[in-house]
């Protein structure tokens, strides 16, 4: 890898890391806006929605220019492709966070579901930890760490199912809460999807290291695994 290419690649990697930090903050802020019914914060998040999108577009342009100008060999080409794919997942995570903020604005009732709020906050904290760990694994090209991070998504899936069950149980008791319930279902589903995108980040780290595209999502590898884990808790 020549010095000129390495310099440009490092620049792209810095942009990617910056995106990741921004997205992590978006998750925190969007969940806070929803659980606290903070309309002002939600509007602030929505107004800044284009920031990550713009960074992803810039990274894509710079990556394609680097490919065109430097014509990288296989390993170097793979480094750029994995970066492009991972940045696309970050952009989708940012979109999901913004959607949560928009849901805060749409759901103007002050009513909230405290038990589910607690679950949502726990999911958010875990997700942000996974995201930040994946950024660290990317910087250090740590394939093993990436695989371990992906395994943690099982806990996110499990928390999603448990939160969904609480929400559905609540609507069965009081069908006047349909609007509130639909918002909560959307938010926990979006958090579950964010977890899936973080697994994708791990997969791109593995691809960059090995050249192999692998499936690391535990829920997809073993569809019955989540139900089995929940049964263990019940016992």
Can you tell me about this structure?
There is one protein chain. With 235 residues, this protein is mostly helical. It contains 10 helices and no strands. Helix 1 (3-35) packs antiparallel against helix 5 (114-139) and helix 3 runs antiparallel to helix 4 (74-106). It is globular, with a radius of gyration of 19 Å. The mean pLDDT is 91.
DSSP summary, beta strand count? 0
Terminal CA distance reads 55 Å
Mean pLDDT: 91
User: What general outline do the C-alpha atoms trace?
Assistant: globular
- Range of helix content: over 70%
Instruction: Please state roughly what percent of the residues sit in beta strands, choosing from under 5%, 5-15%, 15-25%, 25-35%, 35-45% or over 45%.
Output: under 5%
- Give the biggest beta sheet: none
Q: Structural class given helices, strands, pairing?
A: mainly alpha
Order of helices and strands: HHHHHHHHHH
Radius of gyration: 19 Å
List segments where confidence is low: pLDDT < 50 over at least 5 consecutive residues.
none
Q: Quickly count the helices.
A: 10
SSE topology sketch:
Blueprint: H1 3-35, H2 39-47, H3 50-70, H4 74-106, H5 114-139, H6 143-151, H7 153-173, H8 178-210, H9 218-221, H10 225-234
Helix pairs in contact: 1-2, 1-3, 1-4, 1-5, 2-4, 3-4, 4-8, 5-6, 5-7, 5-8, 6-8, 7-8, 7-10
């Amino acid at each position: 890898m020549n010095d000129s290419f390495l310099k440009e690649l490092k620049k792209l990697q810095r942009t990617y890391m910056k995106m990741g930090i921004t997205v992590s903050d978006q998750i925190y802020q969007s969940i806070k806006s929803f659980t606290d019914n903070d309309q002002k914060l939600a509007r602030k998040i929505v107004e800044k929605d284009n920031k990550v999108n713009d960074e992803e577009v810039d990274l894509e342009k710079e990556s394609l220019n680097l490919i065109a100008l430097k014509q990288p060999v296989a390993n170097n080409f793979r480094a750029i492709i994995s970066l492009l794919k991972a940045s696309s997942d970050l952009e989708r995570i940012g979109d999901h966070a913004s959607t949560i903020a928009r849901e805060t604005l749409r759901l103007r009732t002050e009513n909230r579901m405290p038990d589910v709020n607690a679950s949502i906050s726990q999911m958010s904290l875990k997700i942000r930890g996974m995201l930040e760990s994946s950024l660290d694994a990317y910087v250090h090209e740590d394939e093993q760490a990436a695989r371990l991070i992906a395994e943690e998504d099982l806990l996110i899936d499990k928390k999603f199912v448990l939160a969904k069950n609480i929400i559905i149980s609540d609507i069965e008791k009081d069908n006047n809460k349909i609007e509130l319930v639909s918002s909560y279902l959307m938010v926990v589903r979006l958090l579950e999807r964010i977890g899936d995108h973080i697994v994708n980040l791990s997969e791109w780290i593995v691809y960059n290291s090995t050249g192999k595209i692998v499936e690391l999502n535990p829920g997809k590898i073993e569809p019955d695994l989540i139900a089995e884990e929940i049964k263990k808790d019940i016992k």
